[in-house]
Design a protein that fits this description.
The structure holds two protein chains of two kinds. In chain A, the strands form two sheets. In chain A, strands 2, 4, 5, 9, 10 and 11 form a six-stranded mixed beta sheet that branches. In chain A, strands 1-3-8-7-6 form a five-stranded antiparallel beta sheet, with no helix packed on it. The N and C termini of chain A lie far apart (about 40 Å). In chain A, a hairpin with a 4-residue loop joins strand 7 and strand 8. Chain A contains no helices and eleven strands. Chain A is an all-beta fold. Chain A is globular. Chain A is about 0% helix and about 55% strand. Chain B is mainly beta. Chain B is built from no helices and eleven strands. In chain B, strands 2, 4, 5, 6, 9, 10 and 11 form a seven-stranded mixed beta sheet that branches. In chain B, strands 1-3-8-7 form a four-stranded antiparallel beta sheet, with no helix packed on it. Chain B is globular and about 40 Å long. The chains are: A mainly beta, B mainly beta. Chains A and B meet through strand 4, strand 5, strand 9 and strand 10 of A and strand 5, strand 9 and strand 10 of B.
């Protein structure tokens, strides 16, 4: 059965800290891995990764994929209180666009 | 980016009644729409995949007679929760993907359903 596992499930840090969120997966037919940020409503798209070793970056956020070891990390540097959210990792297993989501990591950034 | 809307954003209904939730793609044609359910502090659980003009494909364990999905046009899909019970209370989110807007799924803002 295809699955996506995120760790940690929750994390509390202080402003200015750097955090690394982990996502590992087991799928039979990998197409891409996606990261989303969810605050009070629906998830907003952060990154889509398809190739190993190529870092994607957006401001203080960056992400990289390792298709050999079947995991991805999401880094957030110089965290701010506005980064507090649930971060979701999802994998497209090439079945008509279906996404398999991990449990999410709840990040809380304290002032 | 592409915009997906949901209506209503919040609904409270009594046990035994049915509730319809709409999901619309506002600026693109959504060939595929997905319906998810999310419990508090939990991840998104895919309920069904719907392609325009064809029957929805439900995930294992999701009752198709309980959660009726219709995708009659390229911009609208509806989820009807029939004979709702308190255990159906949840956050329901739709997403859409389509031509001309890249590969990603675009998520609606979600609908909070409370069954009393």
């Amino acid at each position: 059965e295809d699955k996506v596992v995120q760790s940690p499930l929750s994390l509390v840090v202080h402003e200015g800290d750097t955090v690394t969120l982990n996502c590992s997966y087991e799928v039979t037919n990998f197409r891409s891995l996606l990261w989303y940020k969810q605050e009070k409503k629906a998830p907003t798209f952060l990154f889509m990764l398809t190739s190993s070793g190529i870092e994607k970056k957006s401001g203080r956020l960056s992400s990289i994929l390792d298709k050999k070891e079947l995991f991805s990390i999401l880094n957030i540097t110089a965290t701010q209180t506005g980064d507090s959210a649930i971060y979701l990792c999802a994998v497209d297993n090439n079945q008509g666009g279906k996404l398999i989501f991990g449990q999410g990591t709840e990040l809380s950034v304290k002032p | 980016g592409a915009v997906v809307s949901q209506h209503p954003s919040r609904v409270i209904c009594k046990s035994g009644t049915s509730v319809k939730i709409e999901c619309r793609s506002l600026d693109f044609q959504a060939t595929t729409m997905f319906w998810y359910r999310q419990f508090p502090k939990k991840s998104l659980m895919l309920m069904a995949t719907s392609n325009e003009g064809s029957k929805a494909t439900y995930e294992q364990g999701v009752e198709k007679d309980k959660f009726l999905i219709n995708h009659a046009s390229l911009t609208l899909s509806t989820l009807t929760v029939t004979s709702a019970h308190p255990e159906d209370s949840s956050f329901y989110i739709c997403s859409a993907r389509g031509e001309g807007v890249g590969y990603e799924q675009y998520f609606g803002p979600g609908t909070r359903l409370t069954v009393t």
